[in-house]
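Example 5.3 — Nucleotide-binding universal stress UspA family protein
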Amino acid sequence: MTRILACIDGSAATAAVCDWAIWASRRLGRPLTFLHVLDRERYPGPGDLSGAIGLGSREHLLDELARLDERRAKVALEQGQAVLEAARDRALAAGLEAPELCQRHGDLVETLVEMADDLRLLVIGRQGEDSRQQAGQPIGSHLENVTRALARPILVAPDDFKAPDSLLLAYDASPSARQAVDALAASPLFKGLPLHLLMVGEDNALTRTALHEAQAQLELAGFLVIPAIREGKLEPVLHAYQQERAIDLLAMGAYGHSRIRRLLLGSTTRHMLHRSRTPLLLLR
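Solution (predicted structure tokens):
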């Protein structure tokens, strides 16, 4: 797991995704790769269309459709290459050395799973080019599938970039939350930043013990930890706490057996990402 991977597609979020990935590459001291995937559903490869569209022996129509598809795919490939080259120029201008470019034709989720062995952190926008063309889409059509399929840390970037001055870790003492604490403690990504450690639930001896254990581990790793316990519903409490303290980034463990798991797996995922104005780090 050595590489920072930034998914870009030329959408409005592309510049911010590039900047978040550049920032992460510097903080982690890892090489950066920009990835553009040409979706096979939108731009299928050459194939036999006769049975699929019912045109039978009208070969001139089939030939024309094939030529149109070929031209569309060629333009899309060239556009994607231009996006990749612009991202490389942005990284070089920011002082990053030798970012790599990668272009694939296929399915985004499958591509990311194939590349996962060499992946330290994935940076992806909340909305891609496709979702912005569909009114009412708060997050990209691929984002939830990516977070489910990829067992690697994922930074979901908003449409702008500001290097974070603080972060909030949503903690519930579940296995995934403890793994998130382990990941933060072992990583230089946020070292030196104040870390708010928040548990949402009843304030009792068991909760305080779990919170203090996580706090001690993070402080041993060099973090300035601000612990807190708040009662209420998970999502509103997280957003309120983050807004009240102007915290730049929200982090949480993904897919544990807890209320956080239900938050990420259910329809609340879209609602939370839609409301959030800050980046979201999902730790696996």
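Remark. The beta strands are 3-7, 32-39, 100-106, 119-125, 154-157, 167-170, 194-200, 224-230, 249-253, 280-283.
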